[in-house]
Amino acid sequence: MRTHGFGLIEVLIGVSLLALAAMAGIAFILRDTQHSDWVRDRAFARQKSMAILAELRAFVEGGEGEVAADLDGFDDGIGVDPSLTIQPDPADPSSYLPAGNVISGNIRDKGEWRWYRRVSIRPFPGVATRDLRIATVKMFRMRAGDALPGEQMADVSSVIRTVGDAFPTTQVYDVYLVACENVPGWWVFMDSIQPFIEATLTDLEGRNPGLKFRTHWITKLGYGRDEEYAPYTNEARDSRADTPWVHAYPGAMPAGMASQRYYVPEKFGARMNLDGVLTPTFTGDWEEQEPFTDTNG
Fold first, then answer.
1. Other residues' Cβ atoms within 10 Å of the Cβ of residue 75
2. Residue 60 to residue 72: CA distance in whole angstroms
3. What 3 state SS string does the chain have?
């Protein structure tokens, strides 16, 4: 006659099943974290690539008598450089700013630079002129155990020209993009998606001479009709902190998250309660601030 309870084999089977479920959950969390880091790194790489392209363009467009061929000296060949800018070092004009300079924005991981860039300058195929060059910036991410230069995270190109008659007629497309900061969308962070889209459109322009996108970002709804409505958001503390207000849009996120902010306060463009301070409008600086008083006690 069998007594009540579980036998040893049944207990072992149950423990094994629980262990398998726990391992599957841990693996899922790790994959999700790695994907978030990858998305963040890719957005940073594209932004930096576009910034270097802008510096190259400004170099020939800002000086008198400069031509696109003057960019040939910035070509890295098959090498890479940890300085994420082409601005010269005031202490040594023959070299770039140090990689750790705030303009470069590079950082170290375990003593090694995290990011490397490769700038390529080449003539336009079939066009023999000094006034036209194709500039390409590739960005690489170094991780522990990787061989230099690491994983390629961005490859952005742009046509740089210094005369107008050697190019095809420009075709302009107006693109309207909806990115409302006060509309919940848990699948994307507006703090990173807007520069990612802008970089992608610029990349398409660079690969297709004569193509021009004119972007129009739609960032607000009919928000602000009620003078007493001022949703709460945060900058001074992260989004996990307690808040006494009901209408809240989490702003600054905890350290280590995939994005620094979920909702970006300065993009609201309307009345809000920022860390307890009522801000009627945003005009580039926080103006006309007054202490926020909770009239509901």
1. 15
2. 11
3. CCCCCCCHHHHHHHHHHHHHHHHHHHHHHHHHHHHHHHHHHHHHHHHHHHHHHHHHHHHHHCCCCCCHHHHHHHCCCCCCECCCCCCEECCEEEEECCCCCCCCCCCEECCEECEEEEEEEEECCCCCCCCEEEEEEEEEECCCCCCCCCEEEEEEEEEEECCCCCCCCCEEEEEEEECCCCCCCCCCCHHHHHHHHHHHHHHHHHHCCCEEEEEEEECCCCCCCCCCCCCEECCCCCCCCCCCCCCECCCECCCCCCCCECCCHHHCCCCEEECCEEECCECCCECCCEECCCCCC
Is 220 in contact with 269 (CB distance < 8 Å)?
A: yes
Contact 120, 76 (CB under 8 A): yes
Instruction: Work out whether strand 171-178 and strand 211-218 pair parallel, antiparallel, or are unpaired.
Output: parallel
User: Between 43 and 297, whose confidence is greater?
Assistant: 43
- What would the pLDDT profile of 198-228 be if each residue is shown by its tens digit? 888 888 887 777 788 998 887 766 555 556 6
Instruction: Indicate whether 285 pLDDT > 60.
Output: no
Q: Report whether pLDDT(146) > 90.
A: no
Instruction: Kindly report the pTM of this predicted structure.
Output: 0.47
Q: Which two tokens stand for residue 100?
A: 């750790």
pLDDT over threshold 70, residue 284: no
